[in-house]
Amino acid sequence: MFAATAFRVLTLSCHRILPCRKVEVLRSLWSSDFSFVRTYASAGPARRTGDDKIPFRVVRLVHPETGKLEPPTRLSDILESVDLKAFRVELVTEEPEPIVKIVDRRDSYQKWKEQKKAFRKSLKAGEQKEIQITWGVDDGDLKHKVTKARAELEKGYRVDIVIGPRKGQKLPNPDDMDARASEIASMLLDIAKEWKTRDVQQTTTVMSFQKTPS
Q1: How far apart are CA 94 and CA 98, in angstroms?
Q2: Is residue 34 helix, strand or coil?
Q3: pLDDT(42) > 70
Q4: What is the maximum alpha-carbon separation in the chain?
Q5: pLDDT tens digits, one per residue of 126-137
């Protein structure tokens, strides 16, 4: 509804041009020797380029009601005919020709925020955080390290917990090593799971955790 209203405003604005002049303009834009001209480089892909940041002087508008493309129109004419406080003109594609559509400004911003949030989440999902713990760690330090691991898991990161020896410290036997690793895993059981097999070496064990879906 809002897009249709904005388009009707645009249509009424176009009718203000003298008929002969309007035909002449469209013919010149549609002629084979006319090319769409970029005014400057497009903005980054984080959000669709919009309004006067669109790097083309001439574009084609998607009709809000039919979804069909309108004839080539000067971008400046579209911008002058739309209430830019409520609506935004967005560049949908550049190839094979620049195409724009009129969208609700608030909706557009909200969608961009959601996409940005999803993008950050996907980045975190692929990132690893590492926390190191010694075999002879005391209860207080162990609790602190596990709390730190929980905080990183809550943020969406994968966490590797590396348990290894401290210089001058007696190395525990394999059964005690396994028991310590299982103890740490149980402390994170309510929030995370091991997403791959433990890497158990002669002196170290690496456990890889990721947050379980809530």
Answers
A1: 4
A2: coil
A3: no
A4: 95
A5: 678 999 999 999
